[in-house]
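Final report, Chapter 2: Outcomes

The project's central promise was a pipeline that accepts a single protein chain and returns its three-dimensional structure in a standardized token representation, suitable for archiving and comparison. That pipeline is now operational. To close this chapter, we reproduce one record exactly as it appears in the project archive, with the input sequence first and the structure output second.
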Amino acid sequence: MAKKVAVVAVNPVNGMGLFQYLEAFYEHKIPYKVFAVADSREIRTNSGIKLVVDGVIADLKESVDEYDALVFACGDAVPVFAQHAAEPWNRDLMAVLKSFGEKDKVMIGHCAAGLMFGFAGIAAGKRVAVHPMAKVGVQGPIATDAPSEIDGNYFTAQQEHTIPTMIDRVIEALK
């Protein structure tokens, strides 16, 4: 039986990245739910498309044990994360990332995912592919310039355009 995946989507989320994961999960019958890193289920993509997702990050915080893997779907909200780190949904995001990481669940993401895994205090010593602009801020994991990195249970891509370099391995790990 396929692993159950929690997808966390910042607001605004990079739609191209998010939809690559969701399409692959749908095609391979991998169950997932999408949780907004926000106080509302209504978010938008960085191109303005409005989405209503399955829940909010506070819901996921209470149900981590129901999921086997987590996808961090990056977006335009990440560059200003520090300005809003104290918001309840961002504190919940850090708690969720930490909980998944401490339970050695499959961790997947692109762009600044490796940076966020480091902020959460997980993935120390793991090789992560990150967006070039996020690379300098990575603390804990080892940031690389590779299109994607797979290190143990961590699957990261440098950006949405390089997700295809790892998606087959992600699907394999989730089946």
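Archive annotation: The helical segments are 15-27, 57-61, 88-102, 113-119, 167-174.
This record, like all others produced under the grant, will remain available to the consortium after the project formally closes.
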